[in-house]
Amino acid sequence: MVEMTKYMRKGLVEQKDGAILSFSAYAAKIPGIVSFTIGEPDFNTPDHIKTAAKNAIAQNHSHYAPSAGTLGLRQAASDFLAQRYDQHYAPDEVVVTNGVTEGIYDALLAILNPGDVVVVPTPAFPLYISDAKMLGAEVVQLDTSKTGFKLTPQALQGVLDEYGERVRAVVLNYPNNPTGVCYSQEELDQLADVIRDKPIFALCDEIYSELSYEHPHTSMVKSLRDQVILLTGVSKSWAMTGYRIGVVCAPKEVAHQVLKLHQMITTSEPTPMQDAAQEAFAHGQDDAVPMKAEFKKRRDYLYQELTKLGFDCVKPEGAFYIFAKIPAGLEQDDTKLIYELAEQAKVAVTAGSFFAKGGAGYLRFSYAVSVAQIEEGVKRLRAYLQTK
């Protein structure tokens, strides 16, 4: 029998299964486990958005939508970004994708050729790295664990000095998954200055923009619009992860190239889901406010309790994750420790190593779970630590 996988795409076959989802599936089989693994809001989609989806079905909005997305959704997203963040994109500079997940892939596929270099500040959501590698690009991981989990202009310039014209993109995610770190506008301006007027794209994933706690959300779009590809969507801010609506924004000609790929990959997104997302952008501007307040309360409690237990944490400024350094005296191999915690403490967390360089020795806690679960998880962690 021929082993056919040997003849499939090398970049794909070499990819491992997603470690975060694989461990979450493993932990979910443990009876009574308290899980801090998956980054998904534990809220319901607001009723007015659900009604919009129902109405779309009732009104037979069941045919192909334009590949770029319905004009209503693209206009609503455009208006929302302008009013909320002073980010100005015309509807023909907006492409609707199957979540930001597809948007990341489409954008990277549109701008990368084999051998190009992509700069990814790490720890980082692993999808950027795996997508770029599968496309034949070289990924330069810049460990930010010694600089407050932020990319510095000096580190970015160092990559440009070393790799020269091969550098084609830098990926920025803020508020950040897994650290919750945000950038000030001044910091983004300084990073923009390093790549300004160079043939380098900034891929800016701002899916957590509505969950910035301490300061208004900032963006490199304000610093360097012509070189930025902006990624956002409705999953996190409106608790619509299952609706699978992402938005890619870029200068018109760049957006058109992304659109061509999107047409080849998915044709268009489900029309009722687009109507629901349009309702979110158009009439749900304040829907995230109570969610943000609740997440902030959970953040404060979990940060306080983890600190008491000996975890060294950077206090997150956005998103819904705490990235905590494993205390001395515990197993320092985070990939081993998460299994030990799951089996002995009945608490599931994500290994920092899953987020590439700079993540080893850390654990990511998602506080997108109820206060009661957080309190129970802390109680179990405390009991576990007392045995050590």
From TrEMBL:
It is an enzyme of class 2 (transferase). Its EC number is 2.6.1.-. SUPFAM superfamilies: PLP-dependent transferases (SSF53383). Residues 33-381 form the Aminotransferase class I/classII large domain. Gene3D superfamilies: Aspartate Aminotransferase, domain 1, Type I PLP-dependent aspartate aminotransferase-like (Major domain). Its cofactor is pyridoxal 5'-phosphate. One of its GO terms (biological process) is amino acid metabolic process. Pfam families: Aminotran_1_2 (PF00155). One of its GO terms (molecular function) is transaminase activity. Keywords: Aminotransferase, Pyridoxal phosphate, Transferase. The keyword Transmembrane does not apply. InterPro entries: Aminotransferase_I/II_large (IPR004839), AspAT/PAT-like (IPR050596), NHTrfase_class1_PyrdxlP-BS (IPR004838), PyrdxlP-dep_Trfase (IPR015424), PyrdxlP-dep_Trfase_major (IPR015421), PyrdxlP-dep_Trfase_small (IPR015422). PANTHER family: AMINOTRANSFERASE (PTHR46383:SF4), ASPARTATE AMINOTRANSFERASE (PTHR46383). Belongs to the class-I pyridoxal-phosphate-dependent aminotransferase family. This is Aminotransferase.
